Prior knowledge:
Shape: globular
Number of helices: 19
Number of strands: 15
Largest sheet: 7 strands, mixed
Radius of gyration: 23 Å
Structural class: alpha/beta
Amino acid sequence: xxxxxxGQSYYLRFDPKLYASMQPYPPLGSLYAAxxxxxxxxxxxxxxxxxxDSETEFAxxxxxxxxxxxVLFEDNFNYLSKMCLMRMREAAFAMTxxxxxxxxxxxxxxxxxxxHLAQYLGNGASYVIRGExxxxxxxxxxxxxxxxxxxxxxxxxxxxxxxAGEVQQTxxxxxxxxxxxxxxxxxxLVDQDRYRKIWVERHGYYSINMVTTRGCPYSCNWxxxxxxxxRYNVRSPENVVAELKYIKELVNPDHIWFAxxxxxxxxxxxxxxxxxxxxxxxxxxxxxxxxxxxxxHEDTVPALKRAGAHTIWIxxxxxxxxxxxxxxxxxxxxxxxxxxQKLHAAGIRTGFFLQFGxxxxxxxDVEKTIQMVRDLMPDDIGISVTxxxxxxxxxxxxxxxxxxxxxxxDSEDLAMLYHGPYSTEFYRQxxxxxxxxxxxxxxxxxxxxxRLWDREDVRxxxxxxxxxxxxxxxxxKLNALERVPQTSVISLKxx
Length: 495
């Protein structure tokens, strides 16, 4: 028997777009929690939904490990978990039922459960942990196992149903400030061979995930922060390099994804990290998400290069200053241009996250963003539409326009959930138009480097020709959809 079976409800198999790209990462939130709780003397096991085919594999894990508690500790470092996708919520409910049918108490920690307490508790979870999670889980388990006399009703950070069937919440728990005190994630619970095989076969290298921070202090008014709120805490560069040494010996990855909301925000942190990395000889190529304005500091980009930065993603969002200001983004369009130019000059690949559909957006704003992509030609782009999540100022502005569908089914959905500037069909077509033009331009710029005897290069040339020939028709369709009124709330309810 096992004391606690940890798991999460994000199944790569249930997300067609991400399943096609096949870049799986272990559930870092679950691994931190498992490591922390194991340190308290409990035996732990991991169910990794990321690589599972369906929830039935969770049932098999329950039968195999026979746990006292099932803890769905969602990966709060993964933006996909923060998006609270409907298919993953359904999976969490199914997993909860499987556990309770076996007499196993279910405890859940995650963004979606925090936002929808009544649904999760009503579907069989005994407790929902609000906020960061590890310390609250430690205290709850100590109470439930009789290690202490404290009752769950007095433990900060908990939600549960009282005797009347009503949701009861205890006081919030402060965020953990001393992140260096946390043990490293329980990497020994992960099927490294399976992850490595997938990565090497599909991409030619093996990437794993790490974090150096928790939270974000900025106030973008569409960004949900149900776990850490406005709080931001950071590990020391020394602690991060120590983990890199540990990971290199244990896993020996070829690449790291730093899954921080913002990497290297603290002044001097990146520079110190680069120095320690070089001295320790553990520099591993990595990707991270950085703010455009912070990249303009004189020595930041050179330090990122020294530290091993391979790809830096920027939350560019829009090429329209009007939209950036409306979002309370706190950056200037000029910052995006300057940061991208610095990164390219340093030989660091650049990715842009773009967001369309914000309140007040016009076709002119859309075209400014497209022009920004043309001007800067990042190495990759990600496109989304504004997504109303509880707890944000944006949500409060549009909540009366929401229909029954308040979350996407998967990350490819791109449905406009509120009465935005244009219809869902417009933004899905915009996604197509931008990608056609971007991919054609990207291949055209590399045409002199492509080899006609290489099958993959020939495929890219063929795709470039196809995108170029079909782009005018795609743009014509987009222009027609611009004149179609936004999908009504009644239609949204039918989706």
